[in-house]
Design brief:
With 239 residues, the protein is an alpha+beta fold. It has two domains: 117 residues, 3-Layer(aba) Sandwich (Glutaredoxin), CATH 3.40.30.10; 108 residues, Glutathione S-transferase Yfyf (Class Pi), Chain A, domain 2 (Up-down Bundle). The chain has nine helices and four strands; from the N terminus they run E-H-E-H-E-E-H-H-H-H-H-H-H. Strands 2-1-3-4 form a four-stranded mixed beta sheet, with helices on one face. Helix 1 links the parallel strand 1 and strand 2. The chain starts with a strand and ends in a 9-residue tail after the last helix.
Length: 239
């Protein structure tokens, strides 16, 4: 059985979605990041970068156990393990992968920075807020264009690129980051509705809610642990 180490953050929920869509047997090992559990030596043996998600598959290549971190690498691994959710060859494969890279290098990091400056930054961060809000909205404009010409972000069929984009898209909608742009993004909002209607997505969303209920909320974190998570205060690299 696959073990997934993580909690209810968008990058972890990507893997929830893939595992549910693929109907693979798996279990969740909670890592409470706002309680500092990602810095435990046992976890850092799995990922020295001290981040979730981490997937451990005892039935990896050649029948040997494999440990994989980083959500994009995990999604590609699961797609290739099962032969599903990613075109196997040709232009369609690279079309899917290039849009997956947009999520991994654009939507995810820019959204994470925007959440940081909304929730954690001191007052006077207007420049940063404006920058990251613009970067996030640029990604959604690109998604709208893609979805105006393709039924799915992955391509002709649903796949891991859609899975990768959905958790952060759901977060952006819930936090109001799209603002009035929702009315301008009819294809994006239609895709969101199609995603939400998938049974596996509903199951993954429920698992996300369960994980959040069992882990520390960011506003309940110990101040020093939160500083370590955010790499500030005495945990700042320059100190």
């Amino acid at each position: 059985m696959i073990t997934l180490y993580g909690m209810g953050s968008p990058n972890v929920v990507k893997v929830f979605l893939a595992l549910e869509e693929l109907e693979l047997p798996w279990k969740l090992e909670l890592v409470d990041v706002f309680d500092g559990k990602q810095f435990n030596p046992e976890f850092m043996k799995l990922n020295p970068n001290a981040k979730v998600p981490v997937l451990v598959d005892p039935d990896g290549p050649g029948g040997k156990s494999i440990t994989i971190f980083e959500s994009g690498a995990i999604l590609i691994y699961l797609a290739e393990k099962t032969g599903k959710l990613l075109p196997k060859e040709g232009a369609a494969r690279y079309e899917a992968l290039q849009w997956l890279m947009v999520q991994l290098t654009g939507q995810g990091p820019m959204s994470g920075q925007l959440v940081h400056f909304v929730r954690f930054a001191p007052s006077g961060s207007d420049y940063s807020l404006a920058r990251y809000k613009t970067q996030v909205r640029n990604v959604y404009k690109a998604m709208e264009h893609r979805l105006s010409t393709s039924p799915w972000l992955t391509g002709a069929e649903y796949g891991i690129t859609d899975i990768a984009f959905y958790p952060w898209s759901r977060t952006a909608d819930g936090l109001g980051f799209l603002g009035d742009d929702k009315a301008k993004h009819v294809h994006l909002m239609s895709w969101m509705a199609k995603m939400a209607a998938r049974p596996a997505v509903a199951r993954a969303n429920a698992k996300q809610d369960e994980a959040r209920a069992k882990t520390t909320a960011f506003d309940k974190a110990d101040s020093d642990t939160l500083d370590r998570f955010l790499q500030r205060g005495r945990w700042h690299v320059g100190t």
